[in-house]
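Figure 3 (text version): structure tokens given as input.
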């Protein structure tokens, strides 16, 4: 595995069993479960039934798995839990956006979001507790990173959000854009996404799965080598090294050019159009000059530029850009022929910027 360009203090292994010694089943592979079933004297096909209950029938306990022998259900219950965390807080916005604060077994808290948009049922999922990237405008990175999530903890967010939907609705899109840098935890993100796209799992096409990153070139190259056509969204936020290093400090060790080169390589190998994310901060990166520099960076690339007017975070000095400046920024990009989309701030009433719900709770309980 190529090494990451930055130290990754979050790469800490944690025991996967709960306080009562039971294992988090979502952390187990099919092979591991199959081996356990054999040891217990059960047929291997029972494994498929169990996963089917969890992913398709949304079972959250073993008792409801009525086509399993009672003895197996009892054995499963004594050995495993399906959900290992608990919901510490939930908020629902008038536009239908639902945001969950999930408390993990070790007390860490992460956020995940369900967004309703027409027929789309999209979820935004976290990959780490906190984040080491330190983007100055982001609530998730304010206290640094605690640890990587396990692949079971990533899957649990997906299943908890799927469970919010009516029985006849399914998740349609996944965005790895919650708390954390997914490419700093690729070893757990990839197995979780294997389940997300598997027909035995959530059955979501990789073309509807987006992995968001600040741009870690070796990890982007590793992702490209998987040969799975996930969408890559690179959080750029600034067109020059000087400004980007101020906003995304990890840029100091990477640089805009290597990020763009790695994104180009990802496009060449996956054929997937690239997305660049640009959080528009009032008075900081919303000038005409920035729009012109950004246009030059996007030129000749098969990209979609997503511009997201900033969601204010309590305690941080950054502002939403004025509607006039937003319009001028947009017109400058459009005139230069950039394929640009200004994203609606869905769920802005419920602390929709990542890390805000967790941060607000920490502030409340301080
Ligand atoms: S914006 Fe994303 S990468 Fe940056 S600190 Fe927040 S969670 Fe980390």
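Below: residues designed for each position.
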């Amino acid at each position: 595995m190529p090494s990451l360009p930055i130290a990754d203090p979050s790469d800490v292994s944690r025991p996967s069993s709960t306080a009562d010694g039971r294992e988090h089943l979502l952390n187990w592979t099919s092979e591991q479960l199959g081996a356990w079933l054999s040891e217990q004297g059960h047929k291997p096909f029972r494994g498929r039934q169990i996963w089917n209950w969890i992913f398709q029938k949304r079972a959250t306990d073993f008792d409801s798995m009525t086509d399993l022998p009672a003895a197996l259900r009892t054995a499963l219950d004594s050995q495993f839990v399906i959900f290992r965390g608990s919901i510490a807080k939930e908020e629902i916005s008038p536009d239908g956006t639902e945001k969950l604060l999930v408390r993990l077994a070790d007390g860490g808290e992460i956020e995940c979001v369900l967004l309703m948009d027409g027929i789309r049922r999209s979820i935004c999922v976290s990959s780490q507790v906190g984040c080491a990237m330190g983007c100055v405008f982001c609530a998730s990175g304010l206290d640094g990173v605690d640890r990587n999530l396990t692949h079971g903890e990533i899957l649990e967010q997906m299943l908890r959000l799927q469970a919010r939907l009516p029985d006849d609705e399914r998740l349609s899109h996944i965005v790895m854009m919650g708390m954390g840098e997914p490419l700093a935890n690729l070893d757990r993100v990839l197995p979780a996404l294997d389940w997300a796209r598997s027909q035995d799992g959530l059955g979501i096409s990789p073309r509807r799965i987006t992995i968001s990153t600040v741009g870690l070139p070796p990890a982007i190259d590793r992702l490209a080598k998987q040969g799975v056509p996930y969408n890559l969204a690179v959080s750029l936020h600034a067109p020059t090294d000087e400004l980007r290093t101020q906003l995304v400090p990890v840029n100091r060790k990477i640089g805009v050019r290597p990020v763009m080169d790695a994104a180009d390589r990802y496009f060449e190998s996956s054929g997937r159009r690239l997305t660049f994310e640009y959080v528009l901060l009032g008075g900081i990166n919303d000038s005409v000059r920035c729009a012109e520099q950004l246009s030059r960076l996007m030129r000749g690339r098969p990209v979609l530029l997503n511009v997201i007017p900033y969601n204010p975070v309590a305690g941080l000095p950054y502002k939403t850009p004025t509607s006039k400046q937003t319009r001028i920024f947009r017109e400058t990009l459009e005139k230069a022929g950039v394929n640009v989309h200004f994203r609606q701030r869905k769920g802005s009433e419920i602390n929709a910027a990542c890390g805000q719900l967790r941060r607000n709770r920490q502030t409340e309980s301080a």
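The longest strand covers residues 109-117.
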